Amino acid sequence: MNSEPADQIRLLDLQDLDTKLSQLAHKRENLPEHAEIDALEADLTQLRDLLVAAQTEEGDTAREQSKAEKDVDQVRQRSVRDQQRLDSGAVTSPKDLESLQREIASLAKRQQDLEDVVLEIMERNEAATARVSELQDRVASVRTKADDASARRTSATGELDAETTRVTKEREVVAGSVPDDLLKLYDKLRAQQGGVGAAKLFQRRCEGCRLELNITELNEIRAAARDEVLRCENCRRILVRTSDSGL
C-alpha cells in the first residue's frame, strides 16, 4: 500500500486520539467511586437487614410486654376483689376464710412472678429500641456517604463524558483527512493489536512493540519509497517514519 507521508503521519495523530479515548473509557470504568459505592451499598443492605430484625424484635417484645401487663392487671384485680371480700366480713366460714386467704397469698405470688416477667420483657424491649435507634443512625450515615459518593461519581463521569465527546469529534476530523484504504488498514490493525494500529519509528525502535530494528530491517526501510506504507516486522503495526526515526 502507498500513501503520502503526511497522511501516514496523521495516523499518529489519530492513534494519539484513540489512545486518549481508550484511557478515558478505562478511567470512567475504573473510577474509585464505583468500588466505594458498591461497598457502601453492601453495608446498607446488611444494616437494613439488621434494622428489620431489630424492629421485628422491638415489635414482638412490645406486644409481649402488653400481654404480660394485662396478665398482671388481671391477677391484681382478682386479688383486690378477694381482699375486699375478706375485709367485708361476708365470708364467715373458717374453711372459706382459710381458702380465701390462701388464694390471696397465691395471687400475690403470681403477681410478683408476672411483674418480674414484665420487667424482663421491658429490658429486652428497651434494648431492642436502642438497637433500632443505633441502626437507624448508622443507615442514615452510610446513606449520606453513598449519596456523596454518587454525586462525586456523577460529576466525574460528566467531566469524562464531556472530554470523550470533545476527543471523539476531533478524531472524526482527523480520520476524515486520512485516505479510506489507509484508515481501514489502521482500524483493522488497531482492533487486532490491543488498540494500537500505528506506531512511530523513533530512534530505530518501533514505538508499538518497543523493539529496536536490526540493521537489515533499517536498510530495507531506508530503501523504501517515501509513500510506501511500512509494517513493523515484529508487531505488524503500521510503522510511520518521521524526522526522529534515526534513519
TrEMBL record:
<dbReference type="InterPro" id="IPR056003">
    <property type="entry name" value="CT398_CC_hairpin"/>
</dbReference>
<dbReference type="InterPro" id="IPR052376">
    <property type="entry name" value="Oxidative_Scav/Glycosyltrans"/>
</dbReference>
<feature type="domain" description="CT398-like coiled coil hairpin">
    <location>
        <begin position="14"/>
        <end position="194"/>
    </location>
</feature>
<feature type="domain" description="C4-type zinc ribbon">
    <location>
        <begin position="205"/>
        <end position="239"/>
    </location>
</feature>
<feature type="compositionally biased region" description="Basic and acidic residues">
    <location>
        <begin position="60"/>
        <end position="85"/>
    </location>
</feature>
<dbReference type="InterPro" id="IPR003743">
    <property type="entry name" value="Zf-RING_7"/>
</dbReference>
<dbReference type="Pfam" id="PF24481">
    <property type="entry name" value="CT398_CC"/>
</dbReference>
<feature type="coiled-coil region">
    <location>
        <begin position="97"/>
        <end position="152"/>
    </location>
</feature>
<dbReference type="Pfam" id="PF02591">
    <property type="entry name" value="Zn_ribbon_9"/>
</dbReference>
<keyword id="KW-0175">Coiled coil</keyword>
<feature type="region of interest" description="Disordered">
    <location>
        <begin position="57"/>
        <end position="94"/>
    </location>
</feature>
<protein>
    <recommendedName>
        <fullName>C4-type zinc ribbon domain-containing protein</fullName>
    </recommendedName>
</protein>
